[in-house]
Amino acid sequence: MNKLTADDLIYGYINGIFPMADADGTLYWYAPDPRAIIPIHSYKPAKSLRPVLNRNQFEIRLNTAFADVMRACSQPRSEDDSVWISDEIIDAYTELHHMGLAHSVETYIENRLVGGLYGVALGSVFFGESMFTEVSNASKVAFHNLILILRQQHFTLLDTQFINDNVRRYGAIEIPKADYLRQLKAGLKQKARFTALVPEKV
């Protein structure tokens, strides 16, 4: 098989599939049924996160360290954790990032990257891929800011692929694959721009 490219990723996402690498680097494409999504407008930050947000403990940046975020996400979280983000995947998503279609939300403390997430934006759909944290609440704050961006820029669908305890804490639910594909098709027809938050007018 030829090396994974940004065009392969675009084709995959618009058809409801995405790649993951096996331990030996072999790529496989997935289309879960049911599919996990996070309803954009029903998300509410946990009560324990609100004081962290109010303190402005973290500096938020967009798209300034995309490859660094991916590499951090590729590290196993425990001895039992499998790694699915290969060098080939990092290269392809970084290519997509240079095309303006893959994005990172990053959290910093004293100019040090301590958490973040990345994903792909096509039409009004954001495909969340992975997140990492080196400091308590860093990835949660990154996700909170992701949601604010998606709401402000009128995104319609946040795909999170598989259900697990991590995405459940953000309100993830499962829907049938057929429903996901319908929402995907509609969302791809609508335009939305992934950009920094615009201050609300008073």
Automatic annotation (TrEMBL):
A GO molecular function held by the record: leucyl-tRNA--protein transferase activity
InterPro entries registered for this protein in UniProt: Acyl_CoA_acyltransferase, Leu/Phe-tRNA_Trfase, Leu/Phe-tRNA_Trfase_C
Listed under GO biological process in this entry are: protein catabolic process
Q: Which UniProt keywords apply?
A: Acyltransferase, Cytoplasm, Transferase
Say which enzyme class the record assigns: transferase
**Family recorded in the similarity comment:** Belongs to the L/F-transferase family.
| Protein name in the entry | Leucyl/phenylalanyl-tRNA--protein transferase
Q: Which organism is it from?
A: Spirosoma telluris
Q: Which gene encodes it?
A: aat
